[in-house]
């Protein structure tokens, strides 16, 4: 198996705090569990109120809402004192040709995949700057570089993130 970045593979460290958005399923859940297995203190998020997932402490978060983002980040900071690694994973797929997609639906895709990521990053970065340390990982997509027919809006939202 390919080795991951040092902050994933590093020896267990109780001082490392990781926040993974969208950790209720898929890539986010697997990432959160991996960090927890490696000894980090891990907070995962879902829009639903979910119980803790093994070593992952679950916190409610809807990245479309500034209030929800603020509450989530405050909760993590209250409990852990700081965030060392932010994994911006929460995202939505969208299938449908741009021509046939209502503008409100197009905006909804960007509100999660692009602006949602910006909201969470805005809330976490000041703490990282104050502590002069931190990593921000944005989960992108190959679609940003090689768009498929019918995935144009999703690809555009991921391309915006990649720039
Ligand atoms: N799967 C792939 O093949 C693939 C390929 C390339 C990139 N990606 C990217 O990888 C990331 C995860 O994809 P996945 O396939 O693992 O997706 P997934 O299983 O559908 O999980 C998406 C996660 O995002 C959360 N989420 C959705 N809308 C949200 C919102 N408004 N606020 C907060 N959280 C929200 C969901 O949490 P709740 O529903 O519990 O709130 C869920 O935990 C996405 O950014 C996706 O674009 C996926």
Automatic annotation (TrEMBL):
Residues 16-163 form the Ketoreductase domain. One of its GO terms (cellular component) is cytosol. Pfam families: adh_short. It comes from the Bacteria. GO terms for molecular function: oxidoreductase activity. Keywords: Oxidoreductase. InterPro entries: KR_dom (IPR057326), NAD(P)-bd_dom_sf (IPR036291), SDR_fam (IPR002347). The keyword GTP-binding does not apply. Belongs to the short-chain dehydrogenases/reductases (SDR) family. This is SDR family NAD(P)-dependent oxidoreductase. It comes from Nonomuraea deserti.
């Amino acid at each position: 198996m390919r080795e991951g970045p040092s902050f994933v593979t590093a020896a267990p460290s109780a001082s490392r705090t990781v926040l993974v958005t969208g950790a209720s399923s898929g890539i986010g859940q697997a990432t959160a569990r991996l960090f927890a297995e490696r000894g980090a203190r891990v907070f995962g998020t879902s829009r639903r109120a979910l119980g803790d997932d093994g070593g992952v402490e679950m916190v409610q978060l809807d990245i479309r809402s500034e209030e929800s983002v603020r509450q989530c980040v405050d909760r993590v900071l209250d409990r852990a004192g700081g965030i060392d690694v932010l994994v911006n994973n929460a995202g939505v797929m969208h299938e449908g040709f741009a021509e046939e997609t209502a503008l409100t639906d197009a905006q909804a895709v960007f509100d999660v995949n692009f602006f949602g990521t910006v909201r969470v990053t805005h809330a976490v970065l000041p703490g990282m700057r104050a502590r002069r340390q931190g990593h921000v990982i944005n989960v992108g997509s190959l679609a940003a570089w090689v768009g498929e027919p019918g995935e144009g809006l999703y690809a555009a939202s991921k391309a915006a993130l990649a720039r």
